[in-house]
Specification:
The chain has a 3-stranded parallel sheet with strand order 1-2-3, covered by helices on one side. The protein is mainly alpha-helical. The chain folds into 3 domains: about 45 residues, no CATH class; about 90 residues, no CATH class; about 110 residues, no CATH class. The protein starts with 6 loop residues before the first helix and ends with a helix. The protein contains 13 helices and 3 strands.
Length: about 260
C-alpha cells in the first residue's frame, strides 16, 4: 500500500514526522517493509501500535490454548519478529490442536485482547506438524491477521449476516462479486495467501517445503472457483432482486469492503 510513496507521505500515514519515521525504520527495517505495509489494514494496525506508545511486549503474554511444546515454539517465533507484529500477536487468541491428548477446547473471548476498534482474531495451529515447520506457519497466519480487513465491532453489528458462511458459500459469493470471472476471483483469494507468505518471509520465516508453491496454490483456487460456478450464478441472479436488503448486498461485497477493490 505504501510502496512508491515518498518518505513524508509514509510518515504521515503513521502519524509520524519524517525524522521519527526514519528512526523507526532504522530501529528495525522490517517494521516498515513493503510486505508489512502493503494494505491499509496493516498500516492501520501499525499506527495503532505507534499510538499505543510502541510497546515491546513479551511474547509469553499471549492468550494460548494448547500443548506446552507448541506454546514454546510459538513464543520463540514471536520473539524473533518485529515488535508491532509481536504486539498484534498478543491481541490474537491462539489455539493448538492435534498434539498431545487434547481433542478440543472451549473458552470465551476476552474483549481486552482486541485492538480498540478491531475485531477479535483467532489463529489455530495444527500441532501435528513437525516442529521445524511451525515457525513459518505461525508467521504466515499472523501475516493474515495483519492484513485482514479492519472491522469495527459497531459496523459489524449493522451487517447482521443470517448465519456463518460455509467455505463453499463464501467462494460462491466471491465469484458472484466478480460476475463469474473465475480467474479474477482466484487471483483475489491467492493474493491474500501470497501476501501472508511475503510478510512471513520479511519477518525471517519464509515458507518451507511443507507449504504449496504459489503456482500450485493459484491453480487450487482456480479449481475451487470452477466448483462453485453454478451457485455463484444463482447468487448473481438474486442480487438484482434483493439489492435493497442489506444482508444480501453485504454478503456479496463482504463486510466494509468491496471485493473488486481488493484485487488491485
Amino acid at each position: 500500500m505504501t510502496a512508491g510513496f515518498d518518505l513524508a507521505s509514509r510518515a504521515a500515514l503513521l502519524g509520524l514526522s519524517p525524522r521519527a519515521f526514519v528512526r523507526l525504520a532504522q530501529s528495525d527495517p522490517r517494521i516498515v517493509g513493503d510486505a508489512a505495509t502493503a494494505t491499509t489494514h496493516a498500516t492501520r494496525r501499525l499506527r495503532a501500535w505507534i499510538d499505543a506508545g510502541q510497546p515491546d511486549v513479551a511474547p509469553s503474554s499471549i492468550a494460548f490454548h494448547g500443548c506446552d511444546e507448541v506454546r514454546a515454539i510459538l513464543v520463540a517465533t514471536l520473539a524473533s519478529i518485529p515488535a508491532p507484529a509481536r504486539w498484534l500477536a498478543t491481541h490474537v487468541t491462539w489455539f493448538e490442536i492435534g498434539r498431545g491428548d487434547r481433542v478440543g477446547y472451549m473458552t470465551t473471548f476476552d474483549p481486552r485482547r482486541s485492538i480498540v476498534g478491531d475485531a477479535p482474531h483467532v489463529i489455530v495451529i495444527a500441532g501435528r506438524m513437525a516442529d521445524e515447520a511451525l515457525p513459518s506457519v505461525i508467521a504466515h497466519e499472523l501475516g493474515h491477521a495483519l492484513h485482514r480487513s479492519w472491522q469495527s465491532p459497531i459496523a459489524d453489528a449493522d451487517i447482521a449476516f443470517a448465519a456463518p458462511l460455509t467455505e463453499i458459500e463464501f467462494d460462491a459469493r466471491v465469484l458472484a462479486a466478480f460476475e463469474g470471472d473465475c480467474d479474477a476471483a482466484a487471483r483475489l483469494l491467492f493474493r491474500g495467501e501470497h501476501l501472508a507468505n511475503e510478510t512471513a518471509k520479511l519477518w525471517g520465516h519464509p515458507c518451507g517445503a511443507h507449504q504449496c508453491p504459489d503456482a500450485i496454490r493459484l491453480r487450487i483456487f482456480r479449481e475451487r472457483m470452477d466448483g462453485v460456478a453454478d451457485r455463484a450464478a444463482q447468487i448473481g441472479r438474486q442480487v438484482d432482486i434483493d439489492l435493497e436488503q442489506r444482508a444480501v448486498a453485504t454478503i456479496v461485497t463482504t463486510p466494509n469492503q468491496n471485493l473488486r477493490a481488493r484485487i488491485t
